[in-house]
Fold this protein.
Amino acid sequence: MTDLTFNDRQAMRRARLSLISTAIRYILLCVVGFVMLYPLIWLVGASFKTNSEIFAGAGFLPENPTADGYIKGWQTSTPYTFGRFFWNSFLIILPKVIGTAISCTLAAYAFARFDFPLKKILFGSVIAILLLPNVVTRIPQYILFRDLGWLDSFLPLWVPSALAGDAFFVFMLVQFLRSLPTDMEEAARVDGANSLQTLIYIVVPMLAPALISVCLFQFMWTMNDFLGPLIYLSSVDKYPVSLALKLSIDTTEAFEWNRILAMSVLTIAPALIVFFAAQRYFIEGISSGGIKG
Amino acid sequence: MAKVQLKNLEKVYGNAFKAVHGINLEIDDGEFMVFVGPSGCAKSTTLRMVAGLEEISGGEVVIGDRRVNELPPGKRSIAMVFQNYALYPHMKVRGNLAFGLKIAGKPKAEIDAAIERVARILEIEPLLDRLPKQLSGGQAQRVALGRALIKKPGVFLFDEPLSNLDAKLRASMRVRITDLHRQLKAEGLSSTVIYVTHDQTEAMTMGDRICVMQAGHIMQVATPKELYERPANLFVAGFIGSPEMNLIDAKLDGSSFSVGSQSLPIGPHLEGRLSARPAEAVVGTRPQHLSLVADGPAFTAKLANAEFMGHEVYLHADLEGRRVVSVVGAADFETLGRSETIRLRPDLERLHIFDKTDGRNVSL
């Protein structure tokens, strides 16, 4: 009887300790999470503040909430509304993402599944390009596109991606493909499918998680790309949101911070929405070692 | 007609490793041919060369009367069942079955009818709207079989299709596949089968003929009975049969053969079969043909272990320092096997003598 009571006491003590440990862990996680997220929370809060209130304190809750920043920010100081710049961003992103998905899949399929002359050297070049800083290629690329007469158009932003110019994505898809068993593709070949049919009907569906990651990465990087549009686009009517944000800082003498912050919130919104909507595939795609055999 | 001929077939890999050494084989129309051999003997490589999934380095593959070396797999009139089923994971069973016919551009009505027919034969009708991940191993195997069957190919290729299944399911699938083969034959459909396995039970029970391979060479091609009774060489003798054949170094001296210090007369039957008298010989006797006797000419051995298997007992004994196995009836064991020293007599009519230098059976 005494033993049982002792055991009961031990069990209760263990349960209490485990509860305390869990509570401490969660509190710590919440605090760190809050600190990390605070700038974003502040950004959203500050976009509803008046200009004078923004720098008055570090709190994020506006005293007199106003949508003024959104209304006036949307108008911009140019003849175009912010909607126009969103549309431009969309016009850049959509062909770029589609081009990337198609071209990188084709290139990765070739590298992962076929033997052809100079394959090793070519794949080595892809890896070398991966390690090359982007800035190094800016000037030759600029001169090339200038000579082709593509300046102030979306072509310099679309074309490199449509030709599997993003070595990182090719590499990522090659790695994913290498982890997939080849049996299904062989079965498709025995079923009479040619290489392209095998790619479309068998490989692409199995590649979907990685492909979704590629599209998401490309979407977010293009949405955030500042330098590319800055170099190649000179007409304001072609500016994407990344340039338009900077424009609103340049053209106003006294910065209307609430307008800038409001537009910043709108700018990051699509990337956040897309990321959370496709989060499952995104994580699956970058962490997956393929499917089980 | 879907006769398959392999003529001087060779496979050499990029690093100059020769996997298949110019093999020749003729498989008749409607024949069930089993390739069997240990891991790495190139049985799967040979099958894949027939399928067109592996490049042919030399020689040729003829299916029917067409040389198919340069044809892609889809145009060779073959269907293949893979070891891990290779079902398309994103397609339902129906889609898996239909894929080949869709690629061939068949009309929908014809495809639907073919799916119904195959699903009925293989009893997979309730599974048609499931994804491969929702199937058990046996069900997935039947779908893989269906995918092969639906194409009505000239030649079926099986690459160790049952090795991922448990023993019970494997036994039932074995029967199902042989039944199916017989059924196709009875219906007058072309049903040549090349079946790769490392499991000799599968080989012995399923094949019309068996092709035993080792290190890229064909060691013997024969019916299961002939392989068992008349192995052409030491490798086949040791590979086919369970428990393994006892292979014991021996010397032939005049009218007797000796193992260590013990000798037995060769006898007129064995003498008549000998095509040579090798200086260094190996005698082979199956455990079932090494009986436990009370008297008469026999080898004396020390009993090391007895495994009771129900109606029979596996006796492990030391014969002049070599381990031999004898399979005896439980009753014989009770009367004669309960002592430390036992007397084992090989059945001389079924005894094999091999030349130790080249492994050839000289007593066929």
